[in-house]
Amino acid sequence: MKAKRLAALILAGAMAVSTTACGSSESASSASSAGAVNSSAESSALEKANLVWAGWSGEEDSTKAIVKEMIDSYNAKGGSQVGWVGWPWADTQQQLVIRNQGSEALDIAQVDIGMFGALSEMGILADMNDVMGKDYLAENYDPAALKVGQVDGKQLAMPWSIASISMVYNPTLLSKVGYTEPPKTVAEFEECLKKLKEYDKDIIPYGVATKEATMATDFQPWLWTFGGSLLDDSGKVTIKSDAAAKAMDWYKSLKDKDYIQMNITRADARQLFAKGKIAFYDDAIASRGVAKSNGIADADLDNSIKPMKRPVLKEGDTPQSAMWGHLLVVFKKSAHQQQAADFIKHVVSEEQSLKYLKSNDMLPVLKTALVSEDVKKNDWDNTWVGITQNGRTLEFAKKSNGTELNNIIVEELQGVLLGQKTSAAAVDSLDQRLNSSLD
């Protein structure tokens, strides 16, 4: 899809969804006039500018305070001043497109991995290798985190907080069936699911998503586990393989044995997990906070939820996980890209990122922060660091029509689980439909 057509489609959607979002949900953080001297030689050498940072975290109750602190602490240095403009998460992508089509000032934005694909195809993002410096990025961030923001050799976004979506489990439930640690291979995982079902027939042993687009994103790491993929490095569809058919057959076997159930969404899994009705499910680092919000008391968290590496097909294989997180971008239209880079370095600094970790379980990306005592001494955070090191970007994450592509996977995989078609037929259909949608 060409950039102009893509922009027109998103813009049209924005107009249809909300004709007032541009003004009614906007909020700005006034710049502090504190006279503190900027201690950074690099910062003080830059001409002062007024910057606009856009996103959604400054609008949400759980994160608005930490976002305000990041801005205020930077503004207090007395250099460039940053103001915030934000919208609900669901409106953010559309509003970023609208502002880039108009004359409104916009320098920096927070985007998630799903938004990034559409924005990168529009050609409106600056190359962070130029903005931040390629050497700076290579020296300070892990390659896996940087790769999430790379498109065609360009670093169009840099990581702010990245942590793979993997699996979590209920250690108390597992202890009931004789497990002191989670299973490490697919065979061991199946045996554990069997024991859990025998222990309590009302338990859903594995709450994998089987409904909506999340079904496709939960399936992809298992497809990789079985040795398959959706696309090759050149973007060619590669779903037609024995590995893909085996992964689908395995899913079907779990459903036939009542180890997984149909019509389960991520939200369903979270709620049932908090009630002790699900033993395993797929989620991100924030799942501990979600479990707490769903009713698990602080004192019970360690006995109720722990992260784990995804089981592998055979010992020695790499556990698979899907990269998840938030990125920071700078727009080509910004007249103050170097000042934007200076502010971004403040946001992702060890001091600020560790505050973000403490307040919201958002894992830092700076190498020095990842090896800090704050992370090392926290088993939950440290485990996610290990999981994320081998994380992969979901294969349709950078496609502007990623939702459409994921829905195709959902339809074909559901057909297999419901016994409406064989895995071989589903793979053939996927190959045809994906190729048609990617033309």
What does this structure look like?
The protein is α/β, with parallel strands linked by helices and 439 residues long. The chain has two domains: 3-164 and 324-388, Periplasmic binding protein-like II (D-Maltodextrin-Binding Protein, domain 2, 3-Layer(aba) Sandwich); 166-322 and 401-438, Periplasmic binding protein-like II (D-Maltodextrin-Binding Protein, domain 2), CATH 3.40.190. 49% of the residues lie in helices and 11% in strands. The strands form three sheets. The protein has a five-stranded mixed sheet with strand order 2-1-3-11-6, sandwiched between helices. A four-stranded mixed sheet has the order 8-9-7-10. A two-stranded antiparallel ribbon has the order 4-5. Strand 4 and strand 5 form a beta hairpin. It starts with a helix and ends with a helix.
Per DSSP E runs of 2 or more residues, the count of β-strands stands at 11
| Count of all domains | 2
Structural class: alpha/beta
As a percent range, the share of helical residues equals 40-55%
Largest sheet: 5 strands, mixed
The CATH architecture of the largest domain would be 3-Layer(aba) Sandwich
* Beta-strand residue percentage: 5-15%
* Distance, first to last CA: 9 Å
Nearest-integer average pLDDT: 89
CATH topology of the largest domain: D-Maltodextrin-Binding Protein, domain 2
Radius of gyration: 22 Å
Going by CATH, what is the homologous superfamily of the largest domain?
A: Periplasmic binding protein-like II
General form: globular
The residue ranges in which pLDDT falls below 50 over 5 or more consecutive positions are 1-41
Number of helices: 22
